[in-house]
Write a structure and sequence with these properties.
Blueprint (H helix, E strand, L loop, with lengths): L5 E4 L10 E6 L3 H9 L5 H4 L25 E6 L2 H16 L12 H5 L2 E6 L2 H5 L4 H10 L4 E8 L5 H17 L3 E8 L4 E9 L3 H7 L10 E5 L5 E3 L6 E2 L2 H4 L11 E5 L13 E3 L16 H11 L13 E5 L2 E2 L9 E3 L6 H13 L15 E4 L14 H13 L2 E5 L7 E3 L3 H6 L2 H14 L16 E6 L40 E4 L5 E7 L2 E6 L8 E5 L9 E5 L2 H20 L3 H4 L4 H11 L1 E2 L2 H6 L8 H12 L3 E2 L11 E10 L3 E8 L11 E9 L13 E5 L9 E3 L11 E8 L10 E10 L8 E11 L7 H8 L4 E5 L2
Parallel strand pairs: 11-13, 11-16, 12-13, 16-17, 17-19, 19-20
Antiparallel strand pairs: 1-3, 2-3, 2-4, 5-7, 5-8, 6-7, 9-15, 10-24, 14-15, 18-22, 21-22, 23-24, 25-26, 27-34, 28-33, 28-35, 29-32, 29-34, 30-33, 31-32
Helix pairs in contact: 10-15, 11-12, 15-17
């Protein structure tokens, strides 16, 4: 078997189905890797993706050992003869593991001993892990006579082949008694999908026997549920706003730079009056009762006015809002919900919505909001946890980010699941807050595989936001409920956890998302089960809401979660645009605005004491794995909003922007303040590099452009803290925090240099890639010197262009 005819990877990116073999690993992936490495003649399997680390992302789920997708890798072959040879060899080994193999092939027995099966992609893979079975069963239990489905096809390179595949699948849908509703092709993200309505009597054939012709069709990659991006409605009465909260100042007068894609907000709410620019091109408002406009109203309120308990100054800009959710056709978790409609493909709806912002429409209609720079998407697909390759909706956001120079803020997703602690109620009650917090964090770490990011949180160009367990409510907490997290810089117990695609740092940052309390929901057997409290009462973040009666426009609710945190991030980005980015627009140009916004928000984040609380719980793992566990929960850390405003006498912040092509680099020279020379004083250097990368959805590496810098250390007398150095280079954000007290000698006029490099990562890179760089040097505030003034007096524009080393 010739070398490089095949490759083991964790996804099927860019491969036609006839080139894919599924490897079902019997034991641990680690043992499989070891067998491959030790097997002479298995070179064709040796090129395993360097980001596959079995102890972190591809270990077996010990709590669910029979899960269909546990221990699954894919062998993508470019040679049909090699595919046939591997299958033949496997069948011979299954028939008789002791038989003699041909010369040179005997060691393959060690590889095969680690596998349960080698097989082509089939009906099991089309439904495994997609949530389609659970969704259909739920719909049937509610009496639905037909069910929707997203049918994702293998993306064929030829338009003719795609057309033929679409024709075949539409015919199968009709023959099954169903109805094809729509078809979408977006070649830039390698997506080809159909929306279909299927008869209820077809479902048992799929669920029980997998014998339905539709699910066995080779053209189909996945069957997915629709309408899974949703927000459940609250089941208690709202509060009334006080007089001060009803009067939020002048109406917004400036053009929008933020777009909110969500449910339809209540635009005449007292807190939002004159602040929204509602765009409803599909006419959903007529069938959208005011009482159901919960999620969009809350997100609009949090963006425009912040947490009402904090009495923050409203933004001066109007907020563009476009409904992409509407009242649902069924219940979720026992309550009605706002959701993406069953008759819409999420990918298609978002693509149309963004195109309407920036691209001229029919009859030469102008773009409706070309000033928008930030798009808030505070909803996730609950049936799409991160697998091994970005979902269609994540790929769409990545492409649209690059195409239009816009920054998406997306929520990491919520897992509103119970916590079970191995303690009696008396033992739990006797614990102090720090001990309860430690138990909760340990549970999050142990169950990370079941709390993965929800699409589109794995988008590499978007900012993915997690919720910090914090809000502005200052009152006492209920004695009947448990507060599982003590520190406001730690993640909410609701959070979906990273890491992201190719083990990137995700979520990127945490912002306040409200404190979620829990109630005892089950006792016995030496255990306490705690369930999240569903309530519109404090604590949490207070935001505008529909009133209990139709026409009541002065109500509020408390809520919590990653949606809130995402709205909070968007609000801060809007402030940064007007106070930092916009004044620099003449110098930086439009294309650098989104990367600069991205860099500036993340630049204010760090782990600080949050990592100190996690470290004792990870004493049994090595340092690298410990940092990856911290990054799963914290991302780059909680954003310190007090640091968004710039420098102080003890802190100097410098920013730069540019664009690079392959194998080029920019060198930035930062003056060193002479007063620090030889001083043994605490100092911190923070460097953040952000860019928008074009994508190659048919390549396993996906990201076309890798930019990076080497962190300065010796010159400044600091060392790396926070995230692991390799992990921070895998996405489109490199954020490094370096600290130290080592004395470093330098002369007046000396600098420390940061070189930004660029190389291709997924095929050719022909485009110029815009980026932004933010650098902060700070010292202990007690040092009686202004390093800000010293750096300002010495700074000169020094940008050199050089080939990459």
């Amino acid at each position: 078997m010739a070398r490089k005819r095949a490759r083991v990877q964790a996804d099927v990116a860019g491969a036609p189905p006839e080139q894919v073999l599924v490897l079902e690993v019997a034991g641990s992936i680690e043992n499989f890797f070891r067998a491959v490495q030790l097997t002479p003649g298995a070179e064709l399997l040796a090129e395993i993706d360097e980001t596959l680390e079995p102890d972190a992302d591809f270990y077996r789920d010990e709590q669910h050992p029979d899960a269909e997708i546990a221990g699954q890798l894919f062998l993508v072959l470019s040679d049909q003869q090699a595919l046939n040879q591997i299958q033949s060899l496997w069948r011979r080994w299954v028939a008789d593991p002791t038989q003699r193999f041909d010369r040179g092939l005997a060691p393959w027995r060690h590889v095969f001993a680690q596998l349960r099966d080698i097989r082509p992609w089939d009906e099991r893979d089309r439904v495994a892990g997609t949530g389609i079975i659970e969704d259909w069963n739920d719909r049937l239990a509610q009496g639905q006579q037909s069910v929707p489905a997203e049918v994702e096809l293998w993306f064929r390179a030829s338009p003719e082949d795609r057309r033929a595949a679409g024709d075949r699948i539409r015919q199968l849908i009709v023959e099954s008694g169903g109805e094809p509703v729509s078809e979408t092709e977006i070649s830039e993200i390698a997506y080809h999908g159909l929306l279909a309505i299927l008869p209820a009597d077809l479902i048992p054939q799929v669920v029980e026997t997998r014998e339905a012709r539709l699910v066995r069709a080779d053209d189909i990659m996945f069957l997915r549920p629709t309408g899974q991006a949703f927000s459940p409605a609250p089941d208690d009465e709202p509060l009334l706003l006080d007089d001060e909260e009803r009067e939020r100042g002048d109406v917004a007068r400036l053009d929008p730079i933020v777009a909110l894609f969500d449910g339809l907000p209540l635009e005449n709410h007292a807190a939002l009056l004159g602040r929204l620019r509602v765009d409803d091109p599909d006419g959903w408002a007529e069938a959208y009762p005011a009482r159901d406009r919960v999620h969009g109203t809350a997100m609009a309120s949090l963006i425009c006015c912040g947490d009402l308990d904090a009495n923050e100054v409203p933004l001066e800009r109007s907020l563009y809002t476009r409904p992409i959710m509407r009242p649902g056709s069924r219940d979720f978790d026992g309550s009605r919900a706002e959701c993406v409609p069953d008759n819409e493909l999420f990918v298609d709806l978002v693509e149309r919505s963004v195109r309407r912002l920036f691209v001229a429409g029919a009859n030469d209609a102008d773009p409706v909001a070309p000033t928008v720079r930030i798009i808030n998407l505070s909803i996730c697909e609950r049936a799409l946890p991160l697998r091994s390759f970005p979902s269609p909706i994540a790929r769409l956001l990545d492409w649209l980010s690059w195409q239009h120079g816009v920054l998406f803020t997306v929520s990491a997703g919520n897992h509103a699941t119970d916590f079970t602690f191995a303690s009696t109620m008396a033992e739990m009650d006797a614990l102090n807050p720090a001990e309860v917090e430690a138990l909760t964090l340990r549970s999050l770490i142990d169950n990370a595989v079941n709390r993965r990011l929800l699409a589109p949180a794995e988008s590499i160009n978007a900012l993915t936001i997690g919720a910090a367990h914090a809000d502005a409510y200052a009152g006492a907490l209920s004695n009947h409920h448990r507060n599982l997290i003590e520190s406001p810089r730690l993640p909410s117990p609701l959070n979906a956890l990273g890491l992201g695609f190719r083990r990137t740092v995700k979520p990127d940052v945490l912002l306040a998302g409200g404190r979620q309390l829990y109630e005892d929901a089950g006792l016995g057997g030496g255990q306490v089960r705690c369930a999240p409290v569903r309530s519109s009462r404090a604590p949490g973040q207070k935001a505008a809401a529909p009133g209990a009666a139709e026409g009541d426009v002065a109500a509020a609710r408390y809520s919590r979660g990653t949606s809130n945190a995402t709205a909070r991030a968007t609000r801060q980005l809007s402030w940064l645009y007007d106070n930092v980015v916009r004044p620099m627009r003449t110098e930086i140009g439009h294309v650098a605005e989104a990367p600069l916004l991205k860099a500036l928000l993340v630049h204010a984040a760090s782990w600080d004491d949050a990592a100190d609380r996690l470290s004792p719980l990870l004493a049994d793992v090595d340092r690298r794995i410990e940092k990856d566990h911290c990054a799963r929960l914290l991302g780059y850390g909680a954003v310190d909003e007090t640091r968004l405003g710039g420098g102080t006498t003890s802190r100097a912040v410098l920013v730069g922007t540019g664009s690079l092509t392959e194998d080029l680099g920019h060198v930035y020279s930062i003056p060193l303040p002479p007063s620090l020379s030889g001083q043994r004083v605490w100092r911190r250097v923070t460097v953040t590099l952000a860019w928008m990368s074009p994508i190659n959805p048919r390549h396993r590496s996906y990201r076309r452009a890798q930019l990076w810098f080497d962190a300065p250390r010796e010159t400044v007398g600091v060392g790396r803290v926070n995230a692991q150095w390799q992990t921070v280079r895998r996405g489109t954000l490199q954020h490094e925090v370096l600290e130290g007290e080592t004395a470093a000698a330098f002369a007046d006029g000396d600098t420390f240099d940061i070189r930004v490099n660029c190389k291709a990562d997924a095929g050719d890179l022909a485009e110029e890639v815009p980026y932004a760089l933010a650098v902060t040097l700070e010292v202990a505030p007690l040092l009686e010197v202004s390093i800000y003034d010293e750096i300002e007096a010495r700074i000169r524009p020094r940008v050199a262009v050089a080939p990459r080393a």
